[in-house]
Design a protein that fits this description.
The protein is of the alpha/beta class and about 210 residues long. It has five helices and seven strands; from the N terminus they run βαβαβαββββαα. It has one domain: Alpha-Beta Complex (Maf protein). It is globular and about 50 Å long. The N terminus is likely disordered. The structure holds inosinic acid (IMP). Inosinic acid binds next to strand 3.
């Protein structure tokens, strides 16, 4: 142990993922190879939940990772992600999951309705630039933390295309690949997505920490 009770990580780290959604682990585990991911439930906190009321992705991810670290005193990781659209001043942004909700988020629209709402707001706009964003925060102690934030830039189509993926995938076109995100295989999406890119950078950081760097 280092001074201050902080561990020296020379092998796989046990990371607690700040989410109540077990599917998050299924998504993150292959992208963070060699690490042992645990849910708050495995540490006796099945009801762990944090209100995502931050102004940006970093604020939300930091809040969630710090909240779990405060609860457990163990290495904690959190992510926050969404879509930002330049012509809409960054909407839907941190409100990506609640976008278009008639009651401020209590009732969420389905993905198809939400995409229709977004495309309606974009009707007639020439600037179609958008990007998926993913922020990951790893908290190792009260004073030691790592942040990575990555993007997957694209263009908003005028109508959805493709049936893979989820959320906004069918309306985001990637010009270099000539496909929407919903037309990519899982492997292709993992390679180019905001989440895949952020996880690759975090995996590099974790490998360095595991090696004692
Ligand atoms: P969360 O950070 O996983 O809660 O994601 C917030 C919202 O952003 C989701 O409900 C989706 O609408 C959107 N989102 C995040 N990542 C993706 C993606 O890879 N594809 C499509 N939509 C996404």
């Amino acid at each position: 142990m280092r001074k201050g009770g902080e561990a020296c990580y020379r092998r796989a780290m046990e990371l607690f993922v700040a989410t109540a959604n077990a599917h998050k682990l299924v998504e993150l585990a292959p992208a963070l190879p060699g690490q042992v991911l645990r849910t708050p439930a495995e540490a006796g906190h099945p009801g762990f939940e944090v209100e995502e009321d931050g102004e940006d992705f970093l604020a939300n991810a930091l809040k969630k990772a710090r909240a779990l670290y405060s609860l457990l005193g163990r290495p904690s990781i959190a992510d926050d992600s969404g879509l930002v659209v330049r012509a809409l001043g960054g909407e839907p942004g941190v409100r990506s999951a609640r976008y278009g909700s008639p009651d401020g988020g209590a009732t969420k629209l389905g993905a198809a309705e939400r995409n229709a709402y977004l495309l309606e707001r974009m009707r007639g706009r020439a600037d179609r630039a958008c990007a998926f964003v993913c922020c990951l925060v790893l908290v190792l102690s009260e004073d030691r933390l790592f942040v990575v934030q990555e993007t997957c830039p694209g263009l908003l189509l005028e109508a959805p295309r493709g049936s893979g993926g989820f959320g906004y995938d069918p309306v985001v076109f990637l010009p270099e690949l000539g496909k929407t995100v919903a037309e990519l295989s899982t492997e292709e999406k993992n390679r180019v997505s905001h989440r895949g890119r952020a996880c690759a950078r975090m995996a590099g950081l974790l490998a360095g920490l595991s090696a004692g760097a």
